[in-house]
Amino acid sequence: MAATPVRAGVLEVGGMTCDACAQHVTRALHEAGATGVSVTWQSGQARFAWPSDVDEADLRSAVVGAGYRPGALRVSAAGPPVPADPARDYDLVVVGAGAAAFAAAIRAAEAGQRVALVEQGVLGGTCVNIGCVPSKALLQAAELAWTAGHHPFAGLATSSGPVDLAALVGQKDALVDALRQAKYADLTQAYGFEVISGHARFIGPDRLEVDGRAVWATAFLIATGASPSAPPIPGLAEAGLLTSTAALSLTELPARLAVIGASATGLELGQFFLHLGTEVTLLDGAARIAPLEEPEVSDALAAALRAQGARILAPADVLGVERAAGHLEVKVKAAGQEVVVAVDQVLVTTGRRPNTADLGLETAGIAVDARGAVVVDEQLRTANPRVFAAGDVIGGPQFVYVSAYEGALAVDNALLGAGRSVDLTGLPRVTFTSPQLASAGLTEAQARSAGHDVVTSVLPLEAVPRALVNHDTRGVVKLVAEVGTGRLLGASMLADGAGDVIQAAVLAIRHGLTTDELATTFHPYLTMAEGLKLAAQAFTRDVHKLSCCAA
Questions:
Q1: Which of 88, 179, 189, 407 could link 100 by a cystine bridge, Cβ 3.0 to 4.6 Å?
Q2: Residue-averaged pLDDT of the chain
């Protein structure tokens, strides 16, 4: 049977003014035979793929029929055709079944490609099973328990009773099971791709072996993720430790907990146990908690955690862990002195190691770095032109939305010839503590390191009316702008709901807005989002001398 080449391109579309317009154009192109359609009305562009037996005129007519104006069409090089060689089982085989893997499989299936995922464990990867979903479900419950006993409002008599951790974990597990089924298992049938159970190893540059079965493909994607790793602390392994995965499944609260590693995961889980009544000590080798974030934000979060009863030792050098009578002893050097922290459990959240062991990468000519991460270029191609990699396994920012973005991009390049490069401009990151820590783009230190001449604005939360109404002024907003142009380079926020507010900063950074433009954009009064406007105004004005909603 003759092969059908697939092309990819970008079509300029005039007349779009809103999300609904983008949806109309998307639907029209799909009905005309395009696949993998992505339309953004702001840029006036539609990206899609289409087989050679679909005429360009039909695509244009579909756009006209939807009420819009098709313009120039930039066609990328044709992607590889559907293989006519029956020895090749698939167009794309993905090793892994998490966020990057499913985004890739869906994109390829929509383009008419034959797809298989290889997974030796459960579907869904880290996020839905042992990461984002279960942790945030438990964090929300613990925050409610804490707030019930520690609210700031006069005249309200509330209290928080004993917590049934086993019941909370059971509810969390039910949620995980439901989402795994709806967002992963059910989609394999909806999109028609195969899941091969077993361990995959490359046995050549263009084939895998899965538990004795040889699997051939035109292109491969490595999306095996990463797993928790522990530092070589003397006695730690022998004394016993909790990983983040194990911590999410405890059914009894430890009375005392040491957390080694005070970045996002350690801070979230540390505060989870703190909110439920555990005595928590946070340890980090850096000079402060959340060491990759702005120092003003880090300091404000440390103050909030200490006010809730957390003990913070940073910088701290963990010398060793020993098991004593009925407890564990963590030996630490901090502030020039050696101290012993007596605890019942030790939670280690110092990082994650890419899952690349026993994949046969050398056989396929695929390189890894010193951490074991797969080495890729800006288009996510490995040293083997048939093999791409995406997600946590390449050692970049470990966020599920980055993994999904990279999975889809890798397929566009591997099968559709799109030639796209990874662009993380304005990338957001959120630590789901209470208050939340959220940031986007570059910190001041990162911006200066990248060669930018910058100016900053630091706004205490006392200046934000929403915080005053909430009787909760724990927090700060910091903006980083380029000198001369005023272009916003970075934003950081510690506040209730900061994770939702930061999306406005993401758009501002990604689309090159200046702080003046941000300051003159409407922000609803008595929302935390107004903090961005006030911080932008603070570059040129004393916001403490402005009336409510002053422009």
A1: 407
A2: 92
* 339 burial level (CB within 10 Å; 0-12, 13-18, 19+): middle
DSSP state letter for 350: S
**Does 253 have pLDDT greater than 50?**
yes
The answer to whether 215 and 208 are in contact (CB under 8 A) is: yes
The fold of 236-349 is FAD/NAD(P)-binding domain (3.50.50)
Type of residue numbered 381: R
Which CATH number applies to 90-126+171-228+353-416? 3.50.50.60
List residues with catalytic annotation.
16, 18, 21, 68, 127, 132, 548-549
Cis check: omega of the bond before 524, within 30 degrees of 0:
no
23 burial (CB, 10 Å; 0-12 / 13-18 / 19+) is: middle
Give the architecture (CATH level 2) of 428-545: 2-Layer Sandwich (3.30)
Helix or strand run (H / E) with residue 144? helix 132-149
Q: What is the pLDDT of residues 96-144, one digit of tens each?
A: 999 999 999 999 999 889 999 999 999 999 999 999 999 999 999 999 9
pTM: 0.84
What distance separates the 2 farthest-apart alpha carbons in the chain? Answer: 79
Between vectors from CA 129 to CA 164 and to CA 212, what angle results, nearest 5°?
A: 140
Q: How far apart are CA 307 and CA 407, in angstroms?
A: 42
Contact 1, 84 (CB under 8 A): yes
CA dihedral 176, 182, 186, 187 (to 10 degrees): -110
Say how far apart CA 285 and CA 261 lie, in whole Å: 8
d(CA 249, CA 139): 13
What's the average model confidence in pLDDT over 262-270? 97
